[in-house]
Design brief:
This protein has 194 residues and is an alpha+beta fold. It is 48% helix and 15% strand. Strands 2-1-4-3 form a four-stranded antiparallel sheet, with helices on both faces.
């Protein structure tokens, strides 16, 4: 690549500089952490903090997505007359879930758009929305099929990942402190190799 003259090309040179910085950052991280493993108390505290942030409940719902509010209102009227939600979803929904009768499977509310999540949270099992719910995708008629508690993964199953997260946090705190206590010079010239 050097013989072919690729080294001085702007993109190649920039990629080489970035890779060099990544290697140096990894070396500094290994030196700073010095093989120190987080303690069990630190790991447990991180686990508890992550579990506290997790949603406590999952929802199982289905929906019918249509383009306009008046059409969604007609769907609701048909449901009130006793038509099957799944059949209406298959026949009328614009969403790919229509093939499954509108079934969205299990999800937590943080994975849904706020108007949709708020509507689901306000339903009881078996109920459907009696007014259409608007999102950026269109108008939804939503039925709640059930809820269940979210069970966090066992501590032992995520212990190794927690150790990586804690090491990254420690190193980030270290580099943040370096940025505060040191003067940095940035070289804007792409030919400068520093």
């Amino acid at each position: 690549a050097v013989k072919e003259g690729l080294n001085p090309q702007t993109d190649t040179a920039q990629l080489l500089k970035m890779e060099r910085l990544n290697v140096l950052e990894q070396a500094l991280s290994q030196k700073y952490l010095g093989g120190q493993q987080p303690t069990d108390d630190e790991l447990q505290a991180e686990y508890n903090a992550e579990v506290a942030k997790m949603p406590k409940e999952e929802y199982h719902a289905r929906h019918i997505l249509v383009a306009t509010e008046p059409f969604a209102e007609k769907i609701i009227a048909r449901l009130k007359k006793g038509e099957s939600f799944a059949d209406l979803a298959k026949a009328e929904s614009m969403d790919s879930s229509k093939n499954n009768g509108g079934d969205l499977g299990w999800f937590t509310l943080d994975h849904m758009m706020k108007p949709f999540a708020d509507a689901v949270a306000g339903l009881k099992t078996g109920e459907y929305t009696t007014t259409p719910v608007q999102t950026q995708y269109g108008w939804h008629v939503i039925q709640l099929l059930g809820t269940r508690p979210v069970n966090p993964p066992p501590f032992d199953q995520v212990k190794q990942r927690l150790a990586q997260v804690l090491e990254a946090k420690k190193f980030r705190a270290y580099t943040d402190q370096l940025r505060i206590s040191r003067k940095f010079v940035t070289f804007l010239d792409p030919q400068t190799d520093t």
